[in-house]
Amino acid sequence: MGQGRQARGQRSHIAGAAAEEIATRAYLARGYALAETRWRGPHGEIDLIVRNGEEVIFAEVKSSSTRDRAAARILPAQMQRVMASAAVFLDGEPKGQLTETRLDVVLVWGAGEVEIIENAYGHG
What we know:
Blueprint: H1 2-29, E1 33-41, E2 44-52, E3 55-64, H2 67-72, H3 76-90, E4 101-109, E5 113-117
Parallel strand pairs: 3-4
Antiparallel strand pairs: 1-2, 2-3, 4-5
C-alpha cells in the first residue's frame, strides 16, 4: 500500500510540475515575467506568481485529462488559502497591499491545452 501511494504521489508531482511549466510558457508568451514558482506562504503554496508591469498575478494551476475535470478541481477553501498567502507575498512589494493584483486559474488538460481564466475570483 505504501509503495502504491508513493508512486501515485510521484506521478501526481510530475504531472503538476509539467502543468505548471505549460502555464508558465503561456504567461511568458503573453509577455509576462515569471516572479516565483511554488511560492510557499504561511497559508499554503501559490503555484505561479507572474508580473505584468507593476501588476502581480497569482495563478493556481489545475490539470486533468479534460478541461471540465481540471475546472472541477478548483476548491473554494484552497483559493482562500491562496489569497491569504498572496496577501503575505504583497507585504514584500514596494506598494504592499496597494499593489495591483489579479488571481488567475490556469486549466491544463489533454495534450498540453491551456486556458488562463483571468481574475477568476473577482479580486484585484
